[in-house]
Every structure is written in C-alpha cells, then in structure tokens.
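Researcher: Here's my situation. A collaborator sent me these components and asked whether they could plausibly form a single complex. I don't have experimental data yet, so a predicted model of the whole assembly would be a useful starting point for our discussion.
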Amino acid sequence: MSKYKAVIGLEMHCELKSNSKVFSQAKNSYSEIPNSNVSPVDMAFPGILPTINKESVREALLMSLVLNCTQPEYVYFDRKNYYYPDLPKGYQITQMHAPIGVNGKVTIDMGTYKKEVLIHDIHLEEDSASLDHYSLASLINYNRAGVPLLELVTEPCLNSASEAVAFLEYIRRVYQYCGISDADTKMGQIRCDVNVSIMNEDDKELGTKVEIKNVNSFSNVYDTINYEIKRQSELKDSGKYNEVEQETRRFDEESGTTIRMRSKVDAIDYKYFVEPNIPKYKISNEWLEEIKKSIPVLPQERKEKYINELGLKEYDANIIIKEKDYADYFEECVKLGMDAKIAANYLTVNIIAYINKEDITLKEFYLTPILLNQIISELNKGTISSKQAKEIFNKSLEEKKEPKTYITKENTQISDKEELDKIIINILDNNQKQIIDYHNGKTNLFDYFVGQVMKETKGKANPSLVKEILSKKLQ
Amino acid sequence: MNLNKSIEELHELLINNKITSNELVEESLKKSKEIEAKCNAFVTIIDNPKKSVISDNLLSGIPFGVKDNYSTKGILSTGSSNTLKDYVPFFSATAVLKLEEAGAVMVNKTAMDEFGMGGSGTTCHTGAVKNPWNLNRMCGGSSAGSAAAVASGVYPFALGSDTGDSIRKPAAYCGIVGYKPTYGMISRYGLFPFASSLDTCGCLTRSVKDAAIVVDAMKGLDEKDLTTWDSSKINLYNSLNGNVKGKKLFYIKELANIESYKNPNEELIKHLDNFHKTLNILKDMDVEIEEVSIDTNLLNALPSVYTCISSAEATSNMSNLTGIIFGPRGEGETVEEMMKDHRTKGFSPLIKRRFIIGSYILQKENQERYFVNALRVRRLIVDTIKDLFKKYDALIMPVGSGIAPYLDDDNDMIDNKETRVLEEHLQIGNFGGFPSITIPNGFINNMPVGINITGNCYDDANVLNIAYALENKMEYKNQIAKEGLNE
C-alpha cells in the first residue's frame, strides 16, 4: 500500500446495440467477415453525408438519465479532427459542446462502504475502423467504423483500483440491464482510458496526471492502476516526483507495466467544431418521459429486494444480479410461485455451473423457469425427494425432455397422509411385541418401523412424513 | 442546330417525333468536343450516354452536363483535382439520380476550380476554362465548365454547386442564368463537399423557366441528407406568372452606387449604370425599389467571414483525401508519410493555402478569435438581411464589379481593392441559405454582365418569378455566346 492518496479518473467507451450504425445505415453487428457491414459513409467516399440513428440517441439519453446527468436542450454533434488510418473521414463525429449528459452521479456499493462517483459527462460518438498489423502490411476492417459508442467520463474521484473496477462492473451491469449494450470486454465492446495521479493526504492540489490509454479488460484496469500508483509513489519516495510527467502511456500486458507513448506537450489539437451536416434536434419532454419509463429495475435495487423481501443471503443475491439474465430468470421463477430460496439455490449452484460448463447463455438453457417449475412444484408438494429432483433435473437436461415426463406414479413418493396412516396402522398392528420393546427403551426400533413401511411401499413412502406419523403413533 | 433551344421547345420537338433523343445527344456530344477544344470546359465527355425514353416529363431525352464534383456512378468524378484524378464512384449523387429518373441524359462532366475552391475557373487539374464569349477571358468559377458549356449551347442546362457564388458569378460572366436554391432544397448527397454549411446544389441555364424546371426535378427530401426539407408543395415552374406588380425590392447602397467608390474605372461605372437602368425596367412594371444602407463594418467583414468559415469546414471535409481508400496511393515508409505525399502532390497551392488558413483558425488558441467570431458575424449579417426581408420581397444587386477578367489576371490572393465586397457580396446568399438567382442584364465591351435577385429562405418561387418577369423585359434570354467577338 502506498502512503499517498491515489486519484483516479476513468474514460469508459462502450459500444451500443442497434440495427444500424450511428451515422450510417450499414448494419451494426459483429461479423467474422471483414468489411461486410460497410456503407460508403463508413469509408468516407467523396460526397457522403451522415445520417442519425434515433435509437442510438435514445439509448444514450437513457444512460444519461440512469446516471442522473443533466440532458442538453438540443442534441447536436461535433467533429474531432485528426489523421489516422482507422478514421476514414479524417474526423470523428462526437459530442464536445453539448454532451448527451453532464454532471451525473451514482452511488456504488463497496461492501463495507458506499462510494459516490461523479460523472463529468457522457457523450455519443462513432467508433473507428479496426486495424490488424502484420509484418509487411496493416489491414483495415471497416465493420467497426461508425458503430455507436458511448463514452463516459468520470471526475477524478476514485481512490483505488478496487473502486475503479467496482464502478466499471456497476456500469457494465447497468448497460446490460438496460439492454443497450452487451458490454462484453472479450468482444472489445468496452475500452477504457485510465487517469492516475497521487498526492499527499492533506495536499490541496492534485498531483501530475498520467493517462493510460486503451486498457481493454477490467483486470488490466486493476493492474494498470496499481502499477501506476506504485511507480509514481516510488518516484515520489525517492524525491524524483518531477520525473512523473503529464503524459500518455499504455499498459503492457506481458510485463504488467505501463509504457510511455507521448508527452502531453505533443497532445493533438483536435480542432473541434460543430458538425454542420446534422441539424440540431430538440429533445422533447415527452420523449424523455417515455425513455424514463423504459428504464428497467437496476441491479442494486433488485439486490435489496432479494435480500429484504425474498430472504436471500447477500452472497446469493450478489451472484444473481451479476447478470441481467440471471436476475430475470430468478424473478420469473419467483413469479411462478417457486420458493425463492430453492430457486436461488438451483440457479446459483446447478444452473450457472451447467451453462458455464456447456459454454451457453442462460437464454439458451433448456430448462426455462416454467420447465424448472415442473420439478420444484413437485418437490414442494413432497411428491419427489430433493435427491429425485436433482436426478430429474439432470435427466431432463441430458435428454432434453420436459421434467414432468420423469415424474410418474411409479417413481413418485407417497405423500398422502391418509394412505400412509393406513399402512402404518396396519404395520403397527402386526408388530405389537416390537412396540412394547420400543416403549421399554429399545428406541432404535424406530428405524425398524420405518424400514417396514418402506418395504411395504417399495421405498416410495415420503420418509419424513413416515417419521412424523410414526413418532406421533408411538408416543 | 437544336441545342440552343429551351427545354420546353426541345420537349415539343421530342414528343412530336421531330427529333429523337439520340439525335439530340449526338448533337450535344459533337458540340461538347468542339467546346472542349475551344474552352477546355470538360473533364469527361461520356462515350455512350445512357439511352432515355421520351415521356411527359419535360426533361426526358434532354442532354445535360454535370459539374465534376458530383459523384456519378461508373463515370470519372475528379472534382478537378489530382487527388481524385482516376476516381470512378460506385454511387451517384441524389440530384443526378433524380434528373436521370426524369429521363434527362448526362453527356459530360464539367471542369471546375479544384473542389470548388476558387472563383476563376483556372485551377482545374485539366487546365483553365476559357470564356466562350472571349477565349482570352475566364469564365469565373467554380462552376466554370458548366457555365461555358451552357453559354455555348452544348445543352440547355448543367449542374453547378455554389458555396460563395460558384454558380451565380460564372453565370454572369458567361451571360446565362445561374440559380442557387434555398439551402437544403436539393440533397447534397454525392456532392463533394467544400464547406458543408454553405454548399448548395443548383443549375446553370439560359432562362429562368429552364432553371425552374431543372430544380423542380432535383429538389426534395432525401433521407441521406439530414439538411434537406420538404418542398413538395412548391412547384417552381407552375409559379412563374410574371406578375410582380407591387413587389418591393431593395439594394445595398454602399455597394451598388457609384458614389461609394473613390476611383471607379470605366467598367465599374458602366456596370453600375447598367444595373440602375435594369432597376428602371422593374420600376416600369410597378415594382418598388428602395436603396438600403447597411453598416459598412458588417459589409467589409463579408470576405473574411467567408474565408474563415469556408476554409475551416473545407480543411475538415477534405481530410478524407489521404490516398488510402481511393485516389493515388502516396509513397512513404509510414502511413503518415504516405498521406502527406498524396496530399502534397495532389492539391494545388491555392487549396493548400486555404487548408492552412482553415487549420490555423480552428486551432484551440485561435478558434474563439477567428472561427467563433466569424460565426457570430455570419449570424449578424443574416439577421440584418432577414430583417430586411420582413419589409422587402427580395434583394437585387449587380453581380461583381464588371465583366469576366482576363485569364492572366487570375488573382485569388486576398486583396484590398475597394470593389472587393462588391465582388463577393453574393456570399450573403450562402450565409443565410437564401435562394438566389443571377440573370444576364446586358453587355460591357461585348462581354456579358449579370444582375442577382436574392430572397428569403423557402421563397424560391417568388425570387424566380421576379427574375422571370425581368428577364422577359430584356433581350438576353436564351442567348448563346457569340463567337468571334474576341478583341
């Protein structure tokens, strides 16, 4: 641990879901085939003009509302001008003058404390093409060019790698819950820039800010921040803090270190100005209200409900809210009348393990809540034992047949009290001697009676019910 | 000879089978080659133009020319720049598609100042375009080839584009009509951009009626251009009734009166005198004309505001020209070197100068002082003119300070001649997106001069109708450049 206070700001880029790209009508979807989702607009052929995808604007506004930001009166865009082979137009259409949200705030749960994270702004822009570098050439794939991207910029208000990652996890979950992005780091849908500086606890001014660009997984964000804190602290400790420069670095995964790219002195002047081809668009209150109504219940709220109303343990609740699919599945189960704890147990233990092993999503999982309910409701009624329930669960998955096909007269338990009563009375009548012995202290004969009932019912009697009835009758 | 006729006359011949579209097209191609040899007006003369079916549409079967900054599918489109000297697009501009849908037949692509960034017609990569009235003189620009071709009778109309006065100035210099409609009336999709907030598609013709017919066919909402607006209720052709009684026009005193100039040359004296004579024709038709005074500080700012805004937008708009996706690939060890090589070799010095101005004024430390202030002054100018449009139907002004200059007079350098604002005031039309039309109104030393009418946004029909009424009272409608007038 460094004795200094770390100050961290994040820039998080997230690709949004939509049918078409944000400023062109090409398809917005991942494709293995390079340059298959491309329109002339994405490649900046002479004479092209941007269109605007209203769905992307809606999604951006939704996120702006979720993050408690202030929305602008008009939506409009700016050009960020620079030359790079992955930027066909020579400028990126983005928002500088009037971001879709400013001055936001969210509170995240750090377990032992709550952390308030301030959002500087959130803005809608287009992604660049992707480059593949080979020894003799570089190849450009324009599938990604023009994909809607939402960039979220925090204030420098985070103080540790854990806070930064908790915040990113939180935001990723929000994206997924709102259905506006899959927010999959493995697919490159999330990319982060990290700003780190250190200062003495009582310093009034922030230290020198170092920017680390394009950190592409949350674990790398964690490592990057800790490495930078360590690097800067060591320099400060040895009286060489002036060697910490305002500069741009990159994270090197192999060595786990950051490497200098360029000094802030060489920073590019992006020559921002208002994009003239997209007229200003007034955001109506009606539209904002409509968007507000479409915001789903978010993970934090759901977690509290699971614990306080459904009686789950925090550990289980945390697993369930991790993915919107899990939470939706769980809530569907509860809605069908399943016991919340049993449903949670099935989900967190059996189902998640199964889908991870099979490498499928919960949506692709054969046992939908309705099918799962065929098992759980029988278990609840006592017609099957929990051991049987597990067996039916596995068999049903294996053979892809509805659970009820495995629940028949032959294999279900006798849980009918009257029926069991009759059987037990009959057995007791035929074992008078054993009853006397039992009352004289041979209490292990209790198991003998249970065994007789099981023998009589070919093992189908509900054992707990049998024990219950027996102990009453033998009093 | 048929192509000196108006669109209506040609249509009449076509539907009555007096002539076929093929014959018209052949005649146009033959004339194109002749004018190419004489004026250097074209980048491409199309070998086998698309055949067309004659319908009720006035434009069916009519040959036309397209400025080379319109994207035309399968046909070389260079913007008269070496950076695109071999570029053959795979899609057509919306405006061109609409004309082709109407049945018109594109026969050539016309030369222009490189990417529209010039007012002389001398900076095309294929060389200077010569004025058909006098081959030693320029056509003005940037729609130079279109103006030369229409004035020579290659066809009744050609497409132009107008960012400062690129349709309306060459029209005046070539004795024809040049019409820039309201911003957004015609889709810019497929027009190579110069300055997006000012760029307007339009046409050059030999009569106001022909201009109305052509723009009627090109205009309309286009989902590919968000700045287009719905003009479906406007029919320019049907709106031409010549009735202008009671209309009120104004001109800017500081620019249009000879008293404003300390050392006027003979040409300027004749030009302004001719302008006032033309006003008298309108007054005879019961049109009220008033002289209006506008703050000279505002007027004098016009050229700088234009330079700032147009150069800034152009710098950004033309950043796609890197030679990576299209255009000749530059040489170099790194991508940056390749881009630099492509751009260094491809652009003319005039363009590079504008890029440097544009980059400079967009730089963070300069933006407020130059770019943002230019936007403010633009707003002031537009507000001033819009205020006047509350009282007046249109602004009427002389085009430029006289006739087309000699080719070797070409001087795009920023100068401080006292006629500078008179030369450039048509930019007001682009600042406000106003509809604006130039028509010929006489001759000075055997060279044509023009007069311009500009109205409020969406008021195209009114502007055209005033021009139409005036045109009918003068003798320059449908005139063809007379050869052999060389001094």
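Model: Some features of this prediction you could bring to your collaborator: Chain B touches chain A through 45 residues (CB under 8 Å). The first helix of chain B runs from residue 7 to 15.
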